[in-house]
Structure formats: C-alpha cells, structure tokens
Specification:
Shape: elongated
Distance between the termini: 36 Å
Helix content: 40-55%
Low-confidence stretches: none
Mean pLDDT: 94
Structural class: alpha/beta
Strand content: 15-25%
Number of helices: 16
Number of strands: 20
Length: 480
C-alpha cells in the first residue's frame, strides 16, 4: 500500500488544461501542494498542463510510473487498458490504478459491468491494485499526493502539520463534503490520509484497515460505509485494528429505503443494520449518527488522551448552558457525575467569586458570568487534579468584558504545562459562534479540542468513554 500514498511517478489519464474539467483539478491540486514527485498528464491534444509536459498515451512515458489515475470518460476504458497492457509487457512498473470516473458496475447496466470487468482484467493480469472506480481519489497530506478532482478547501499556504486522522469513504460526494466541512472549521482539519474507494472493485475497507493498523502516522480512522460483502472479514479486521487505535464509523442504509439507495449508488448490499450494529459493538467501533459528530469525534481522538473512566465534571461559566449541558450528559448512562473530595471543594470555593455554585449538584460547578480568566483556568486545574475526575467539560459563553485572547492563551498554557502522564481529556465548549472564533482558533492551534455547542462536546465525551471502556475490557481479558 505504500506506493499508493508515496508513489514514484503519477500518470493522469484524462488530464485537461480546461479549469472546468476534473482532469485539470487533479493536476492543479498536486501543483498547488508542491507535490515533489513526477506527474505525467496524458492528453494527446496538449503539450503541457501547469508546467507538466503531456504525453499522448501511457506507453510513451519513459520514466517509472507507480500510480495511474483515470479521470477520462468510462467509455474509453478499453483503449486505455490496451495501452496499459502494452506498457506493462515492457516495463512492469505500475502498482496502483485510481479510477475516479463513474459509469461502471454501479450503474447495474451490462455496459457498465463490462467496463469494470475490462478494467479489472488488465489489473489482475499484471498484479495491479485498483482503487474505485466511481471514487474521487486519494490524498496523503504528508507526501502531498492528491489525485482528487475536488477543491479540498485548505490552501497549501496555510498548511501546518497534518493531523493523525485518516478517512475512508465509499461515497465520493460524501468524501468531498467531509473535506469541505473540515476545511470550514475555525482551524481547518488537515487529514493525514483521505481515501475514496467507490465501488470497491478491488481495494476495500479490509485492505485499508490492514494497512492503517500499523501506519504510525494514523492515530484514528474514520469511515463512511454503505455496505460490505464479507462481514466476517470486516469484523476480524475491525477487531484487530481497534486493539491499537480507534475506528469511527458513519454507517448509512439503516432504513429499507436507505439500503436500496446504497445498492443503487455504489452497488453495496447494505444488509441488516442490526447485524452491523452488533459487529461494531463487539469490535469496539464507535458508531456516529451525523457528519458533525463524525468530525468532532475524530478530532477528539486525535488530540486527547483516553479517559480512565466515565466520571465527567461539568465546569461552566454560564447557568443556562450549564443546565442544557447537564441534561445532555444525563442522556448517557456511561457518563457519571464525580464526587470530588472535600479538599477539592474547599480549593474550588476559594479560587472563585463568592456567588459561584460549587458542587450543587455533585460534579457540577457554575463559576458565574463574572468569572475572570484566572477563575476559569485555576478552577479547571483544581477540578482535574481530583482523582475522582476522569474528564471535564469546560463550558463558557464569553462575555464582552472577558478578554477572549487572554483566556484562550491561558488555557493553552495550562494544557502545555501539564505533565504528559497527568493529562486528562477536556472538552472545551466555547459558545457564541463567530464571536468566539478567534479564541477557539488559538485554542485549536495550541492542541486543544473545542466545540461550539454543549451537546457536541457531550457526544465526543461519550464516544471516547465507550472506546476507553472497550480497551480496558481487552486489557482485562488479555491479563487472564
């Protein structure tokens, strides 16, 4: 799989100089990311595209090509595969094909099925692995490979260190949406790897899970799934991977109508949703319901340590949002209200203004709207030092008289000064939309995980708690 994400030579069949064409966007993406490897546009009518010299066909490229990207119309697949056969008979170099075009077997038409079989006929003959067809391509933001034909929404000039999040999607459109949603966050989410697998004519979930299990740059795996043909193989792969790193899945096709739509979309048999739910639960997979929950949970796993248990302290600066958050926490039986020590209560009381509500009820503190930056930060530190607390939800609606930047920087400094072994997950909920975007950006760049509503923070806390409990169960079983 390494040559998919770090290839020696990429040929793009269907490359175009027309900015309105998908074949142009794929070339542009690699040019804009300063991809350091060699790119070979295939277009017999062009001399060059964005500075890359063009070739008339695959056999004409004199250098090594590990990866071939197909973005031409599906009706041309026979001609292109004939050219690939001629090349491979001489050079034996191509390791992967990413087929980004649609109109293959997912159409259920005889012609579409024949096209996909023609693609796979050459691939099998030469031992070439195929991603797709009917996908948008592959991204690796560490090697700067980007074979997609979509705008990822994150300019290369703003790139920082990629996250540890790798995402796999059966849907190209959903994959595009995930990229855009991530790019629209207060600090854009720069995925580690991003793979759209479409029809899964060859490379599928299990292949990628097997690879990502030992990929040191991947800390958490996200999946959009419509269905999979071999439930036993999927379950076995998930059980292996979740022993080492979390897997977060958005599985669609729950309803009969949704399952039928999935079958029409990528040719996936969605199967019984109750069976998938059971497999996910037994395999320690975190199943999410929405795109927001998916991205929030992936970021939380990427940035925070796992909690030691389900005791979550709610530390709020605002009464109404605090009550709202309390109800959200109470929806989940795996989350509990910690009873902190009398010493912690005394220290908390002394660190806050006289009108602050400390531990009424237990596991809850409202430090009031008049709280200063020091009140926010010092009290949070006192809460986290209590042994009964496994995690905290920090909730604030920043008033106009509280310096946002100073608060954000102080929270980042508190986290940085905490010894690695003593860190506990903190779900920072900073409300008020665009008004607090600058503060949240400072916090995110400082390594904190922020949320804009209490229920999103609670869902992330619940999901990390579930996975941590699964890992603890595995450790106990292994110790027997």
């Amino acid at each position: 799989m390494e040559r998919l994400f770090n290839p020696d030579g990429i040929a793009v069949v269907g490359a175009s100089s027309n900015p309105a064409k998908a074949g142009f966007v794929a070339i542009r993406n690699m040019r804009e990311k300063n991809y350091p490897g060699r790119v070979y546009p295939i277009n017999p009518k062009e001399k060059e595209i964005l500075g890359y010299p063009c070739f008339a066909s695959l056999p004409e490229i004199g250098e090594n090509v590990d990866l071939v990207v197909l973005i031409m119309p599906a009706r041309m697949i026979g001609e292109i595969m004939d050219g690939l056969d001629r090349r491979m008979a001489v050079r034996h170099d191509v390791k992967f094909i990413v087929c980004a075009a649609a109109d293959y077997a997912e159409t259920k038409t005889p012609e579409g099925v024949r096209r996909q079989e023609r693609l796979m006929q050459s691939a099998r003959r030469w031992g070439i692995r195929v991603v797709g067809p009917n996908c948008i391509g592959v991204i690796d933001n560490r090697t700067r490979v980007d074979t997609t034909f979509v705008d990822t929404g994150v300019p290369f000039s703003t790139f920082g260190e990629p996250t540890g999040i790798t995402f796999i999607s059966q849907s190209g459109a959903l994959a595009s949406a995930i990229l855009m949603e991530g790019a629209g966050r207060v600090v854009p989410v720069l995925y580690n790897k991003f793979i759209s697998i479409g029809n899964m004519a060859d490379v599928d979930f299990v292949d990628l899970l097997d690879y990502l299990e030992t990929d040191e740059t991947t800390r958490v795996i996200g999946i959009y799934m419509e269905g999979y043909r071999d439930g036993r193989a999927l379950a076995a792969a998930l059980r292996r991977v979740t022993r080492k790193k979390p897997v977060v899945v958005l599985k669609v096709g729950r309803s009969a109508t949704g399952a039928a739509a999935a079958n029409s979309h990528t040719g996936s048999m969605a199967g019984s949703d109750s069976v998938y739910s059971a497999v996910f639960r037994q395999s320690g997979v975190v199943r999410v319901e929405t795109l927001d929950e998916l991205i929030d949970t992936l970021q939380a796993f990427d940035k925070m340590p796992l909690p030691a248990g389900g005791n979550v302290f709610l530390y709020t600066q605002a009464g109404g949002p605090g009550i709202y958050c309390t109800d959200a926490i109470c929806r989940w039986p795996q989350l509990h209200w910690p009873v902190v020590s009398d010493e912690t209560k005394r220290r908390l009381t002394e660190s806050q203004l006289p009108m602050a509500n400390i531990c009424h009820p237990e596991g809850y503190a409202d430090i009031t709207a008049s709280a200063s930056v020091a009140n926010h930060v010092d009290g949070l530190q006192i809460v986290l030092e209590d042994s009964a607390v496994d995690a905290a939800i920090f909730l604030t609606v920043v008033p106009t008289f509280l310096p946002q930047k100073q608060l954000a920087e102080a929270l980042v400094e508190r986290e940085r000064s905490c010894p690695e072994g003593a860190r506990k997950p903190v779900y920072y909920c900073v409300m008020a939309g665009a008004y607090t975007a600058e503060a949240r950006a400072i916090m995110e760049r400082g390594g904190l995980c922020t949320f804009n509503t209490p229920d999103k923070a609670v869902l992330a806390a619940k999901n990390l708690c579930d996975y941590a409990a699964y890992r603890r169960r595995l450790e106990k079983e292994d110790a027997r």
